[in-house]
Amino acid sequence: MDNVDDVKQPTLRLAGHVRTCAMSDQVVLLDLRRNRYLALGLKQWEILSGTTNMPPVGRPGGREDRQDDIRRLSGSLLRQGILTSLPNHGAHDDAVQSPDSSLDVRGATPYSAIGANRVWRFMVAATWAAAALRLRSLRSIVDHVARRSSRLDHPEAAHQAGLRDAVAAFEALRPLMFTARDKCLYDSLALACFMASEGLKTQWVIGVKTQPFAAHSWVQAGTVVLNDLHENVRSFKPILVV
Questions:
Q1: How far apart (Å, rounded) are the C-alpha atoms in residues 167 and 101?
Q2: What pTM does this model have?
Q3: Sign of dihedral through CA atoms 220, 143, 147, 171?
Q4: What is the distance between the alpha carbons of residues 61 and 69, in angstroms, rounded to a whole number?
Q5: Burial 138-176 (b: 16+ CB within 10 A, else e)
Q6: What pLDDT shows up at residue 60?
Q7: How far apart are CA 140 and CA 242, in angstroms?
Q8: Do the strands 237-241 and 224-225 form a parallel or antiparallel pair, or are they unpaired?
Q9: Tell me: the pLDDT tens digits for 20-52?
Q10: Are the beta carbons of 238 and 96 closer than 8 angstroms?
Q11: Do 202 and 234 contact (CB within 8 A), yes or no?
Q12: H-helix or E-strand containing 134?
């Protein structure tokens, strides 16, 4: 009789709603379906990489028999929906350029020059972002933002003035609905939606860091950060880019 350990096990992979970020001391996972972060130690990740299609992180450990560890860890992640044996349809692109500057909107469009149409677009974007974060999963929000972004062109050099003008209008109107302080996710989602309504393509980013753990969100256009200081966001490693 064949040994049960010799029976080929199904290949496991990360579920399509999970994003990962490899740090120096651990691998952070973002579950978009449940709106939560998880962390795996590098040893745990290395164990999983032996039975999944996930690449190893850091220096690989020994290849001694670890079937019990694999079954225990993969079983737990399967039950949580983090791993799956089902094929994933389509790939997500989490590439974003390293930010090297911040957008300076001082002296841009004054509040008095903002027209009614732009005010309406701002209110729609801010209202939708607030409702979505309360009622929808991050997975649903990401799908919506990605679909809308796919219909836009990347900004050319000629559009840089339009970016600056739109962000200046957003910052001038923001106090009508909310403040950016301690609300980086809402602010960034609202800004990304507003920029899309202006026909301008940007990237909505969520980044993480450890020791201690923290998450932050911002919006970029190329290497330019639109709603934060680039020195600040560079301390976070992107885990989600839309």
A1: 15
A2: 0.84
A3: negative
A4: 14
A5: bbebbeebeeebeeeeebeeebeeebbbbbbbbbbbbee
A6: 47
A7: 12
A8: unpaired
A9: 999 988 999 999 999 999 999 888 888 777 655
A10: yes
A11: no
A12: helix 116-135
